[in-house]
Design goal:
Shape: globular
Number of strands: 9
CATH topology: TIM Barrel
Radius of gyration: 19 Å
CATH superfamily: Aldolase class I
Bound molecules: iron/sulfur cluster
Number of domains: 1
CATH class: Alpha Beta
Strand content: 15-25%
Largest sheet: 9 strands, mixed
Length: 269
Amino acid sequence: MPAGIPLTRVLKTAKVKITTKCNRSCDFCIFANGAQGENMTPEVFSTILDRLESIPFRQLHINGGEPTVHRGFPALSRLARTRLPDKVMVLGTNAITLARNQRLMNATLHSYDQILIGCDDEHGNYAEVHAVVPVLRAAGKTVVVNSVLEGISEERLAGLADLCTAHGAVHVTNHVHHIDVGQPANDLHGLCARYLDQHLMIELDGSCYRCFNAMAKEDSEFSVWDEDFAAKVFAPRRHHYRFCGKCHEYTDSGSPAVPAVHLAPASVG
Ligand code: SF4
């Protein structure tokens, strides 16, 4: 571990967006561009793994877009699994390709520990989710099915709850909360501490956000191309992202820099 990083600081999740392509076009999605999206190059992905090897973190989360439509998905997944053998590997997917393509299902079974599946009317994937959850659970994978409450009927919700109960999967729900849906702007004061050390989102081009929400173009704080990447992951936050003013998740840290500077033990008190 590089010098100067307090031992107490461990990043929970490094989230890598390997594509902005998707096989669906959900109205509420801000992360994908359907068939017009782009794939991350192998060079960027390899550099990300180089950088991640230099920081303490727990989970590598591969998402998109729909990550399984990246034509290199099996190879990238296997590479990450091999190079980061002690990390929890998490796949975020709509499961449509997993239900229809055995090669992609096999790649998932080989490389991932947890599969997070979005399922509601927008995803339009009820049949596929009902097909893949039993397979994934039979292979011992942790499966979490997530439904956006604004986009699913009570009947469908009950059906997913029954499916998850029957196979030992987890069913969670949330609201559309990561987009501007006309809510009043936040009255931002201190910086947001909500996702400190929780999410590092890495975009197609290697730009980084220390929040799963923030993704305004050209708004990143640093990138995987920075030689001091490891220090920057744990450096104090000093400004808001452009998106913060519309974010439901904002929590006021009360501080102009987050986290506060760590004091050496001899200086405390
Ligand atoms: S206000 Fe929202 S977008 Fe900004 S850092 Fe906090 S959680 Fe992320």
